[in-house]
Each structure stands twice: as C-alpha cells, then as structure tokens.
Amino acid sequence: xxxxxxxxxxxxxxxxxxxxxxxxxxxxxxxxxxxxxxxxxxxxxxxxxxxxxxxxxxxxxxxxxxxxxxxxxxxxxxxxxxxxxxxxxxxxxxxxxxxxxxxxxxxxxxxxxxxxxxxxxxxxxxxxxxxxxxxxxxxxxxxxxxxxxxxxxxxxxxxxxxxxxxxxxxxxxxxxxxxxxxxxxxxxxxxxxxxxxxxxxxxxxxxxxxxxxxxxxxxxxxxxxxxxxxxxxxxxxxxxxxxxxxxxxxxxxxxxxxxxxxxxxxxxxxxxxxxxxxxxxxxxxxxxxxxxxxxxxxxxxxxxxxxxxxxxxxxxxxxxxxxxxxxxxxxxxxxxxxxxxxxxxxxxxxxxxxxxxxxxxxxxxxxxxxxxxxxxxxxxxxxxxxxxxxxxxxxxxxxxxxxxxxxxxxxxxxxxxxxxxxxxxxxxxxxxxxxxxxxxxxxxxxxxxxxxxxxxxxxxxxxxxxxxxxxxxxxxxxxxxxxxxxxxxxxxxxxxxxxxxxxxxxxxxxxxxxxxxxxxxxxxxxxxxxxxxxxxxxxxxxxxxxxxxxxxxxxxxxxxxxxxxxxxxxxxxxxxxxxxxxxxxxxxxxxxxxxxxxxxxxxxxxxxxxxxxxxxxxxxxxxxxxxxxxxxxxxxxxxxxxxxxxxxxxxxxxxxxxxxxxxxxxxxxxxxxxxxxxxxxxxxxxxxxxxxxxxxxxxxxxxxxxxxxxxxxxxxxxxxxxxxxxxxxxxxxxxxxxxxxxxxxxxxxxxxxxxxxxxxxxxxxxxxxxxxxxxxxxxxxxxxxxxxxxxxxxxxxxxxxxxxxxxx
Length: 808
Prior knowledge:
Oligomer: single chain
Structural class: alpha+beta
Strand content: 15-25%
C-alpha cells in the first residue's frame, strides 16, 4: 500500500484517476480517501472490457492522468487486456500514466511493462517474499523519467526498504520459480476439483474460465489464487471455518495455504451497496494455495465441504484413495482430481428452500430490530466575515440545506451472542464493528441532564481513540472516536443493546461547510433519542372544527430545552473531532437559520453569538473547487501580516466589520422587501470578497469560479467561503434568473472541473423522522438500507419521501 501511495503522489488535485471496479480492498480504501480528501476525481469502470474505458477518455471531459488496473483482479480474477487498454489510453489520454498491480502474478508469470504499462507494482509481502515474514512493496517504471520522479519521493519520504528486509526479500526471490510452479499446479488441481463439483470457480487456469485465452496471451501461468461461489453466505462461512490445514487470513503468496471470505475480510471496507454494484458476491470464498501436499489440501477442503453440507457422497460411487492414487504431489494430474470429485454431488437448495430461508431471515431481522431512528442536520456556510473573525470581527454564518443524514438501528441483546456496535460511513467506503464488551463502559464519568458534560474526559477519550486507531484514515478515525465517545458516555448504566449507526452526507466533504458539525449533530440527536435522554414531541393533532392547525412544515417540532441539550452533546462531539472548536458550526447545525458571532479580543471587546431570522427562500449555488485547503497557514498568514503591516490590514478588518454589521441589519429586518434584501446581499458579497482577496486568502481556483459566474450572461455575485485557499465559493441566485441560464451555469462549472451544488441558505436546523408518521409499509431495516444505497444527489428527495419530519 505504501508502494501505491508512492505512485499516487504523481497525481494532483483536479486530476482524474480511472481505476478498475474489482480491486484489492486496501486499494479501494486509498482511492476513496483520494477522492474525498485529495481533490482527485476517481472513476471506477470494468477494466475486463477494454472498450469500457474509452468514454472516460474523451478530451475535455475528464482530466485522466492515471489509469490503474489489476489483471487478474482481486478477488474475482477477471482478466484485463493490458495491451488493448494501453492502446486505448494512448489514443484518448496520451499523457496519462498506466499503472498495473501485478501482485497476483509476480514478474515470474507476467510482465506488464513489456505490454506498454508505465508503472508496475507488486506487494513484496506476497509471492516475492513467499514466507510472510516481512512487509515490502516493489515499484518498477518503464522509463527513466518516471523512475526518477518516483525515486525523488522515496528519498523525500524515507520509504526505502530497510537492509534486513532487503536481505529477506532477496532470499525469498531465490525460490520464487520453485514455489510458484508448485502453487499454481496445486491451484489448478483444486480449481478443477471444485469446478467438477459444480461450483462457480474463478480461475484463469481453467479452460472454461472466460478469461483463459486472453490471460495466456499476456502471461505464462495462472498463479496460485482462485475464488469460488457457493450461493449462500452461511454455507460459505461454514466451509471457511471448517478447514484445518487452510489458515483463515486475508493475505496470499506464502508457502502456507489460506482461505477467506473477501466481503467479510479483505474487502469489508467497501460498502455492501458498492460490492453489489461491482458484482462482488457476498458468498465468495478465496483460496490462496501454498506448497503443501495437494492431496492434503483437497482432503481437508473436502471434509469441510461435507461437514457444512455443501456436498454429499453419491451412494454408488467408488472411493478414490487420496494418498495412493498419485505417485507424488509433483506429478498430480487432473484425471485423478476429476474422478475424486465425481464420487460426490453438490447439494443445491431448491427454490422453495431458498424462499423459506429468506422469509425466515427477514422475519428474524424484523423481530430483532428494536427501533430505527432517522435524523438529519444541515451544514453551514459563512456568508460574511471569515478570516477577520479571528481578530474580533463579526462573522455571519447560516445553515445550508445540504444535509447530513443518519439512521440508528438497535436490537435487544441476544441470548446466543454478545451485543455489537457498528458504524457505517458509505461516503468514506467505511464500516467497522466492535463487540460491545470491548468498549470502555467502566471509564465513562457519571452525568445527568442538568450536568451534561462540557469538558472531555481524557481517560475515556484516550481509550476510544485507541479503538479508533485501527480505522483506515484520519477522517475515519475522528468519526469513530466521536461516535464511540458519545455512545459510551450516553449509554453508561443504560440498555447496551446492539447498535448500528449509518451516516451519509449531501455536503461536499472537507470543503469547510461544517460537515463534521452536521455529523456530530446527527449522532447526538440519534443517541439522545435512543437512550431517551430527550423524547420526540408529538405532532399537532389533525385540524378539527374547533381548531385549525397551521402547518410550519415541522420547523417548530423540537422545543427550546431539547435544542440546548442537543447542542451541548454536538459541541462535545466536535471537541473530540477538532480539539478546540469555536462552537459556531454545531450551533448553526442544531438551530438552523443564521447567527452573528464575534470572538472576544482586546481590540474589539466582548464577543458573543446572536441568532437571526431564517431566510430559506434565498437560493445559493455552492461550488466546491476540489482544491485542498490549509486553514492554519492561511489564518497564520493574516495574523503575520497584521503584526507586520497593521496600517494595511487593520483598515481591511474594519471594512469587513462594516459589511458584517450591514448584513446583520439586513437579515434581521423583518420589513425589508425581498428584492431589496437580495440586492443588498449581492453588493455585500462582492465587496466582502474583494477585502478577503486583499488579505491574501483567496485562491486561483476561487477567482476562476468568480470570473465565470460574474461574466455574461450570468452576471452573478460570488465570494469565497470558509477558510479559502481552495475550498468553496458561494453565489447568490436571484429569483429572476431563468432556469435555463442556471442550468448553463451549473454545466459550465462542472465542465471546468468544479462541483456545483444548488441549495438554499438559512433553513431549518436538526431534524428527525416521526416514528408514527412514516410512509406506510416501511419494513424494519428499510431506512438503513435505503440510506446506504441512495445516490448522493437524491438523498434529500429520498428523506422527504420517507414521511413527516420535525425540525428545530
């Protein structure tokens, strides 16, 4: 993985990586981070169909600078026509680097550089070493120019392999041909055995495999890894757990044989809906063959197949002696394997058996689900005053109607198994489960509603951060820590049932729009409702002849006291994530609307926060530049200029203060007409951005967005938001702008490499789905599965279609 990380250093923000759709789970995880945090667009496509790449390589549509593929793929062993892909990429994106992960083959069986690939990398931990006693990555380049670029990073990052590990790797290479010859010979026997039994086998060494002919045009062997499908997840679990010689592990390529279920192990970090979209079967079993006697391996696998009920002996079939049918393991032949398999028959469940089993599973799941809580919270956008806020200038922040959604499902403790806690973050392709018994319930300090904790408990925090350390990336780690901290603290002394929390966001993550605060608000409300610290209010009764109910669309459903409690816990979660947050993001995410806030400073006196009216009908276009930001250095830069050039910077800060004061008056003026309000905000937006640019916190990408939106025929007003330095820009959309012009603007921004989001600003705060007013017929678990699979752009519409929501 550090080898792939090294290669991906050649990709820059704004570039596109075109990758296969069947990749090692760690590769998917790193590419997912690159897409969410690195400003890089990642597209997955079926690389086993070379023509499928062509639509993504049309000049001007995607800036493809790297194509990443595996052949055979892991774990479906699909074959890519490497030479054909090279030809297609060279025609559509001649400057793109073509990268191949050759770990499944090793250079002994396949040499992608000879087929035109620019960079080839292998996990030296696997076949090259062959003994699972070191971790190493090998990167090779076709040209000296690319090799020098990679070498520079190795030197700069200090990732060169240690001398003793080099010795171990060189030792392993001496036996590579001997090991691989034995491993693929045994693998071919086992694949033939399972194929003869009637299982769907994925292995290019089989003549029946769809990739067989192509694979042997570009490789000299099929390798020592294969996979097969049983048709049933529970059956696969029984087979895997029933073997004795086969070790249950996620690695491969060593002298010992391993067995695993990718969807539960190596590829578990890929969300279930993405696995389904990419055709990765949940019941898939991967076999990684070592150098043991193939008779022993088949004998052990056969025993597990029999014990699990996957196969049974044919009553009239003769017994084939495992140990004497072949002269030596090295002279094993397919004829004996086929005869051996023909003494058994595969046990295939009937359609009625499958239907009954599915019905029983569904019934168990419905009975097991104790509750399903759906919540949502808005992000925030800073409309005026950013950067100057640090120096005591008033900032204006408002909720943005791109929301984070969460679903908490819980079930009562089982009598046969321990309770479990699961966090699912599909946007990050992340899922992790903990046994409830490993959580530090005993470390949580006591509290009451009246004394809801404000400060973090360092002992509890250290423990949950240790649990989070196993997570894949920095964003996952803080998300896990915040969730577990609140879960343990709120759950102390209460019913510790099995809990799963799933969160999705319509916000562009990492763009300074308060996505962490929206997440914190969602987990806070969900857990507070789950533990009944607060109770959801009842909706107003239907209108009667005596009383006409005037709908507020749910905006007054959460009372003031509950809002204060939710905010305290959301702020606590933000402390876990950020250490020392301002409290503004969670305040806006909980309450909605807009707030004016100011930091206490010697120059401008006492600070504070003041709420303002909601102005949700004002449309804004938020455009994510997809360029990473360094907030700390930007803030430090303004501070340094203020200290060095107070006569230049102080007047700018005073001007921004005047803008914020005027914006506050506009947004608080109930009598101001709509057109007058919009015109006033437009002029303030333009003026504010000019001052921020003078402070040096703008960015070329933001200036490009401003230039595009302000030019004819759009003539709109745009400014940076948040911390600048990339990040996002906000554009006010007046009522009179024709829909066709707006569509043209959105398309223009997208074609320029930006991500535009049309939304409203100043709307409702935190919300929850009323349990008694959901759409009729929603089965248990429906909200969780829907949230996991719904496209991001459809999240808001999906949520509104689930039933009636109540908001702050």
